[in-house]
Amino acid sequence: MDEDYLHNPHDHFIKAILGRPQQMAALLRTFLPSSLISGIDWASLKREPGDFIDQKLREQHCDLLFTAHWRGKPTYFCLLFEHQRKADKKMPFRLLRYMVRIWEDWQGKHQEDPLPLILPLVFYQNQRPWPYSCAFADSFDWPETMAPEERELWLSLLPNFRHRVLNLSQIDSNQVAGELFLRVSLKFLSAVLLENREEVIKEAFSAINEIESSHDSDELLNNCIKYLLGSGPEIDKEELILHLELVQNAQTKEALMTMAESLIKEGRQEGRQEGRQEGRQEGRLEEAKLMLQRLLVRRFGNISSAHLEILQSASLEKIEFWAEESFDAISVDELLSR
């Protein structure tokens, strides 16, 4: 697994599943209000390119943007995913900034046209419900003594919307109509969050038997194995092979076994490589500490045990900094205070 996947397994897996219009449509059909569903031209649903999320928030969120025609008008479906299991209290404000960027992009391309509708959705992974208000109006610091009519007046003068939250860990995947692979994928998503995940993983692998083998299905199933190995509690090879034994199709089972063994081997190699790198780094640090200690003894005579403790707890960057500064230092105390 590459380094980017190891740092963002949820991002990669969710985009592999829901980045496909067919599977996103199945999810939206199941969980959006019927009044919205009835107006969507599902054949027009497509994923849009672009990156509208704050770079500093990319470790916490990932995004998918789709368009479709709703009642004949272009409409955006803005999907923001929480990577972290801790909910973001400022999500309505984050979404407003995100939506404004989409509208700015639209206006740059369609200067004379009205702005399109945007449906803001938050996909969340936690076994607990979303703990904060979804209303942008609740982001303001309202006076406690304000009369209802005053609040209504202010609301008429300010941006006001509510985002919808879909907690992926609380979805009953059996409710999702049509897309069998999506149901399997949602079981894998849930399994990563559960302490007692054994039964859910068994259900997921058993459901694989209903998926017809094809290039697309093999690729998607490979993503499931990769996600299971790359996120959540560690799963060992023996446990994984026991689960894979539930797959009845011999060709699919063999392909998944090969994939799993390759990923496990790759993970071990990465672990050994990281261990070697850490070992080299530690060796370099110890060597730098010893050289600085000798340098200080030559300049200032014997150094105290307190000074040695400071040197032993310092980082390589700090040791190298002190070594450069030592030539014009007045004393060891003065140098180590820099």
Q: Quick gist of this model?
A:
By secondary structure, the chain is α/β, with parallel strands linked by helices.
Radius of gyration: 27 Å
* Sequence stretches where pLDDT stays below 50 over 5 or more residues: 268-276
Largest sheet: 5 strands, mixed
Query: Number of DSSP strands?
Result: 5
What class do helices, strands and sheet pairing give?
A: alpha/beta
Strand fraction: 5-15%
Biggest sheet, spatial arrangement of strands: 1-2-3-4-5
Mean pLDDT: 78
Quaternary organisation of the protein chains: single chain
Count of discrete alpha- or pi-helical segments spanning 4 or more residues: 14
Give the CA-CA distance, first to last residue.
42 Å
Measured as a percent range, the helix fraction is 40-55%
The 3D shape can be described as extended
Description:
The structure is a single chain. α7 (180-193) packs parallel to α9 (215-230). The chain has helices at 3-7, 9-18, 21-31, 34-37, 91-109, 148-157, 180-193, 198-207, 215-230, 237-244, 250-300, 305-313, 316-325, 332-336, and strands spanning 40-47, 61-70, 73-82, 117-124, 164-167. Helix content is 54%, strand content 12%. The chain is built from 14 helices and 5 strands. With 338 residues, it is an alpha/beta fold. The two termini are 42 Å apart. It has a 5-stranded mixed sheet with strand order 1-2-3-4-5.
